[in-house]
Design goal:
The complex is a heterodimer of chains A (689) and B (103).
Chain A lengths: L1 E2 L3 H24 L5 H26 L5 E12 L2 E11 L1 H24 L6 H20 L3 H19 L6 H32 L4 H10 L4 H16 L10 H4 L5 H10 L1 H11 L6 H19 L8 H21 L3 H38 L17 H4 L1 H15 L5 H20 L5 H25 L13 H6 L5 H13 L20 E4 L2 E4 L10 H25 L18 H73 L6 H25 L1
Antiparallel strand pairs in A: 1-2, 2-3, 4-5
Helix pairs in contact in A: 1-2, 1-4, 2-3, 2-4, 3-4, 3-10, 3-14, 3-20, 4-5, 5-6, 6-8, 8-11, 10-14, 11-13, 11-14, 12-13, 12-18, 13-14, 13-17, 13-18, 14-16, 14-17, 14-20, 16-18, 16-20, 17-18, 18-21
Chain B lengths: L5 H21 L3 H24 L6 H31 L13
Helix pairs in contact in B: 1-2, 2-3
Classes of the chains: A mainly alpha (689), B mainly alpha (103).
Amino acid sequence: MTGSENIIPFVLVLATVVLPLLSFIGLFIAGESIHENTRSMTATTLMFFSLCAAILAVMYCGVSSQYDYSLPWFKYLSNHQLTKHTLSFSVNGVSLIMLNIVVFISFLVHLYSYEYMGHKKNHVMYYPYLGLFTFSMVMLVLSHNLLVTFISWELIGFSSYLLVGFWFNKEAAAQAASKAFLINRVADVFFLLALLLVFYKVGSFDLNVIREFYIKQYLSGYFEFGVGMLLFIGCMAKTAQFPLNSWLPDAMEGPTPVSALLHAATMVAAGVYLLVKLDFLLTHDVRFVMAIVGSLTAFFGALPALTSFNSKKILAYSTISQLGYMIAAIGCSSPSASFFHLVTHAFFKAGLFLSVGAVIHALHNVHHKLAHEHRFVHMDPLDIRIMGGMGKKMPLVFTAYLITASSLIGIPFFSGFLSKESILNAMFTFAEYNHGIAWIVPVLGLATVLVTAYYVTRQGIWIFMGESRLKELKYYSEHVWQKVKVNQPVIVIPLVLLSISSFFFFFSYNPFHAHGWISDRDLVMWGTTFRVFNSGFAEEHIIVMILSLTFVSLGILLAIGLTKKSISVHAVEKKNNILTRFYFIDGVIQGLVIMPLQKSSVALAAFDRKGLDGIVHGIVYVTVVKAHIIAWFDRVFVDGVISLLVYSTGKFGKAFRVIQRGNVQNYLFWVLALMLLVAIWVLIKGVLF
Amino acid sequence: MYDIALSHYLFIGAFLFIIGSLLVLTRRNGIFILIGLELMINAALINFVAFSHFDQTKKGGEVAALFILVLAVCASVVGLVILMKVYKQFHTIYVDEVRQVKE
């Protein structure tokens, strides 16, 4: 293999790729025959080793060096040119950090699922799917070849289909999985187009080659814009930008650990990671579009969370909103701020999902135990209207929720504050630089801060504060609730670790300002430094911090004030308003795409029946008529000739038959007559000559 | 006085032949056909005798006449036998009633 000669990073990185794959293959083949707990432990152990390999890799390599490895893959001859494709991997600062995040959160999810997914349906396939997903995510992170990236991109989409539709017997889950997969597929068309355009111009999928090409060669503005735009649209579905994001709220049908892994930390971040890596492919105009779309997504994605009563859906809307921030940051020419937010978001969002998941798990247990006692209570474990008082019941979970939620809102001393500040700073700089309509970007960004603070506090109050509203359900019994405990280590450890990661000290010495420790390390990407965790070329605006802190406090206070009054089990959810139906995106897709397709397919079927079948029938008729004509011809003419022959022969024969009548004397007469004639003739001949 | 020339004998022979053939061709009665046949043979005999009269050196003709006469008798006998057999089969000697070849 070519590239750096140092084999240790290669081996370590290879371990991180291979171990999840082993988990997938092994448990897929042999999963049914081993006990549920053994399955969980095997998968978790493999992930633990993978995590160790990842940590060792980052410790060995450090974040400031780059190792590129490429393995020969396949080659073909076309137009007398030999094209060689290689499996290239790049181990650099950015990919190592992303790798660690992915593997770490995957490991925590594996651990958590030991308890959460115990005794649930279809357990056999859970860990294999998780392994497949982790494998494809790690491949995406490490790959330096666009084709491998695309393959892992598709694999991620496929694993998410498997995981979201995990409980496929439920109609809603199956539909949500298909929706997620199909919307991602639509975007993948654009991604593939971008890939193909690049390959057409450059002749290789290898990112190093492509980057050289982009730096050295002049490319037409249209081409660069086209490729950048196609790439962005390709990433739009995964990173849940409008309008390709209606799949994300529905994807909450999957198990909660899956949501924590996919829809908080990894799959949705794949798009952002890719855009950060391929930042050189984006032009100024594409970035402008990204900034606008990102900020719109951030604001409008967060609004439905204000009125939703589904705990996981609130978090899904929150993810959409934060992803909008990340994309907007790239658009504001600050991929470093975007990556920073990606990292912090992974930790606190996963923490949020897992803590809410602990509450949901407790409610599942209650439901289960009540069912055992033949009390069939109608309750949806995800509904926040029946929660309440969880703070007293599960203090550890509550603390974890508080910490991670504060990080999400952007309270100082937490990591989320630092990353959000970087992004808001970048947005301000962008607006100052571009003037005019560009000011909508920071305005929306700040407005989203307010909205985020409101809905997160609202969710916290509904779930954790006050008294438990479970007693208001029919057939409910209190002693069951006393028995349910949420203090298993496999639940607690992930929560603790994720909460700790949501504090500021991992990222900066100064809780208010991203400096020091990791932030100041120069991450190497592309052989040049990439100052991560810093807002790039932006100057820090103090006004940004003041405004954001104001909005945060305003949001929290508003939430505390307004929510207390409306807490009730019987709170009614408004159906069919613009927020509940998610801006009618699904309706638009139904009307613009699905209905015409269905109508046209019905029309085509009718055409096939009447038109094409009619043509076939017509041909049949013509052929039959032709056959009749030929038969007539055959009868009249061909047989007629034969009949004529037969008739004439008969008549002829009859005419000559009269000679032979059986009368001997008649024969004798003719003999004599003819002999006489012959004699006369001879005589005459003799006389004449 | 006319000498009797060869041609006079031949004419008589021809004349008798024609009468004989007429008898053969037109008579219904089988016996008459045999008579006619006999006449034809004798006509040929006359031809032989005539030629032998005008032949100076050899007198073969009369001998031939005797042979022919015998032959004619044999032929007549055979004819009569056939006629007898026909009569036994068909119970009639009228030859136009004897037909197995249908029209």
